[in-house]
Amino acid sequence: MFETTHFTEELTNTISREAENNGMEKYETGIVGFLQTLAINNESILLQDELRKSASLRRGTPDALQSTKLLVETAARFAQADKRSTLSLSDMQRAWEVTFCRIWPFCR
Question: Which homologous superfamily is 5-98 in?
Answer without folding.
Answer: Histone, subunit A (1.10.20.10)
